Amino acid sequence: MTIESINVGNIANDGTGDDLREAFVKVNNNILELDARTANPVTTAENLNGAGVGLYAGEQNNVLQFKTLQAGSNVSLTSTNNTITVQADGGIDNILILTDDGSLELDDSVHYNITGKDIISTSSPTDNALLIEIANSGIVAYDTVPTLSAALDANNNNIRNVNTLNTLTMTGNLQGTVHDIDVRDINKYFDNYWDFGEILPDSFNGILDYLIFQTDVDMGSFTDPASFDIDLGEFT
């Protein structure tokens, strides 16, 4: 059914329009038509596009209610009859980055680079990621005074090109072999005291004295003596 129009004639009381009864019949029909079209005559609203924050809050007593826009920090709102302008004042403001050596204040008009140095490198493998990597080799070479906080495990690898092994500052035991010889096997000969049993001379001051005593020296012959001298001291 459509809305019926009431014929009011050309001029008042010219007899061409609908009579009073017919006019109110059309009025009643139009009311029924409008009532049938909307079971609940309440106007509602909705927020379009699920992204962002919606403005529509709800309806109460046939009054549409919307959320109020408020300006946050460094943001201003300007309203006209047709628009609301949201303006961010100054862009990035008062962002200060502190480092171990100096500081950096960010300016939204300048591009800044994040770079590595020596064994540290930077990259951006994806649009929203920053990767900072430390090289897996050469780290110790950049430490001028390297120290260990735990035992060093060489993992069955060689330690090569050693210049000087300062034993004066070493504490604890240096473990391992030298040319496949374990020094612990001869340690018993240096432990506590020397006991060579019934030998001459009566005593030795150390292993060098013992080795010298046990070593024969060939002086050559009277006709072909050796080319070195031995000082045996004086007769007195």
Could you describe the 3D structure shown?
The protein has 236 residues and is of the alpha+beta class. 11% of the residues lie in helices and 16% in strands. It contains 2 helices and 10 strands. A two-stranded antiparallel sheet has the order 1-2. Strand 1 (56-60) and strand 2 form a beta hairpin. The longest helix has 18 residues, at 20-37. It is rod-shaped, with a radius of gyration of 53 Å. The relative contact order is 0.04. Mean pLDDT is 78; it is low at 195-199.
List the helices and strands and how they pair.
Elements: H1 20-37, E1 56-60, E2 63-66, E3 75-79, E4 84-88, E5 96-98, E6 103-105, E7 120-123, E8 131-134, E9 177-178, E10 181-182, H2 207-214
Antiparallel strand pairs: 1-2, 3-4, 5-6, 7-8, 9-10
Task: Write a concise synopsis of the structure shown.
The chain is built from two helices and ten strands; from the N terminus they run H-E-E-E-E-E-E-E-E-E-E-H. The chain has 236 residues and is of the alpha+beta class. About 2% of the residues have low confidence.
